[in-house]
Amino acid sequence: MASDYKITRDFIGKGKSRPKEKNDGITFIVAHDTGNPGANAYANRAYFARNVVSASAHTFIDDSVILEIIPLTEKAWHVRYVSTMDNILYDGDANDKAIGVELCWGGKISFSEAYKRYVWYHAYLCDKFNLDPQSDIVAHSTLDRTRRTDPQNALNRYGITWVDFIEDVMDVWKTFRTVSTDEKVRSTKSTLVVTYGDRGVAVEKIQELLIRAGMDLREFGADGVFGKETLEAIQKFQRLSGLVEDGIAGPKTIAALKRVRKGKFDTPTPVRPYPGSYVMIGDRGKDVEAIQRAVNVTPDGIFGPVTESAVKRYQARKGLSVDGIVGPATWNMLF
Q: Which of 10, 71, 145, 309 is most exposed, with the fewest beta carbons within 10 Å of its own?
């Protein structure tokens, strides 16, 4: 396990900011920035230690310290209960099921050093609680989009997008983990293969890449089961890519699929073009069916509440604006 940075635990006393209530078990992480530029981790601790507000976070990070002020086994008040997006995305309230992590920035704080610790700590938490950075880290702005812009508020000032941040966490997270099937899907240097009959998250991620490449998984979508439909899609992709058509998702096939995600794959079968207008709840037709297959919803061609919720979950995982509407940005990420 990586141990690049020390974690300092200096807990505040019981009060409005620390209720000393056990949480329900950690299932995701909420990334924040403090919103008060120039205030370091201990300055924020001093504020919450006064226990005069019913607000807090578990951890504050600046350029010199990773400071946990509330135990990770307890609740912290870092997302409003009246915001319901956390329930939609994670089936629970962030205060009850998530760790709140705050990035300190601005003033005399070295952003590069603070950011390194911020990335490392998120990777550490993902390893500790068996979470996936791509799906289990969410921005505060996603959960409370009408009021909050963090942590993009801080990250964007230094040229870092949400996608950049998640990719950086992924890179560090890999150093914590024993090599697993799912991890090797992300590493094209791996010699491990995923093949017919396999099941799980690794298969699901390959299926998502196949859908992005324009391959047809219309019957089952990204269901995490490597069956006949997935086998035929991989064989077609391999044929179009000039690879050995063996139906096995090995390093070369995975590398080619990842290049498609970055728009570098040239295939005579075009990726499904954007229809030219938003696709949203109430719409019907073939475009809705394609979206449903891509977000793993039974394709009936009707954009209803179930499809809208699935689109929102997808948008949150990919760092997109979470509105349940498939516009150009979401469409291009899907296809």
A: 10
